[in-house]
């Protein structure tokens, strides 16, 4: 008989979360009134791509054990987000557009509503307030999640168009991540050679000319290594650290790697140091992409490893917030990936063969116990995802609501005046 420890743990966790959320819902109207008189000068929004509740639990168990707390969980407010787009199962583009602009749209849309009309992003609103903006990711810097905060295209695949908009339209101050291939035209390799051994399909494919030269002409400091990034001065920074993603994802055991040449915590720290020189404040979005990509390949080991790097980055942001109390910090996901579940180590495995079979066992930190991870899909799911929040305006984010509610709450927390 299959052990029930997995679903018992899930039920206990869901029940506890429901009780917490219910208590917050009861106090919501009072919270909104009190928060209305406050204003966040800075916002740091973390997106663990594909990171649902179960992934967060696995990261916690493997890192700090049953009684420990991750930095991303040790926050005073929690909410639950419905993740659907115009269809029940969203992609990252539509989800990020909901977060950044407050509209439901079709999968693949970047900064566009369902009628393919551009919608103003939170970055554009705060830029008008004189604040700085930054995007950090282990994916291409022009991939769906960062793109939705600072560009408008009908199709997320138009990554060179997105890059050009960053430079000339939304004028994002800090851009750190992968995706060099979309900044150089075909046949013109950048710092990372075309067709590398680890993935011969990666090569320069830009459609808007040499955008690195364009960035330099617009006053950006361009960096290609961790050392150069750390030495960089000035308020405008472009760092491209890989051909495409800053890791390699393939079917588990066939060469999948997570070892970014510039770790996410280091990029986060540099972005904060750079953006915080603006006395009017900033909005920084930080994404860990590998929590999604590794889950697509049902690789629990590297999903957890990427989540641990995300949590280190969150701790850096929390340290910043301690010395800058007018800062709002959020950790959420765009959607869940993989139908991820945590189960007891057991000889039976109903999930099948190939990549969907159970992963593990993984040791529970500070104990002699183990757990395994099981999967139901290699795609996205429609389950709710948690958001944990601390800082100025954090109380606004409690409750259960649509993903579009993140945008309206961010606007309220920052004092953004939205059109009626």
From TrEMBL:
The keyword Zinc applies. Its cofactor is Zn(2+); Mg(2+). It comes from Paenibacillus artemisiicola. Keywords: Hydrolase, Magnesium, Metal-binding, Phosphoprotein, Signal, Zinc. InterPro entries: Alkaline_phosphatase (IPR001952), Alkaline_phosphatase_AS (IPR018299), Alkaline_phosphatase_core_sf (IPR017850). Transmembrane segments: none annotated. This is Alkaline phosphatase. Belongs to the alkaline phosphatase family. Residues 1-27 form the signal peptide.
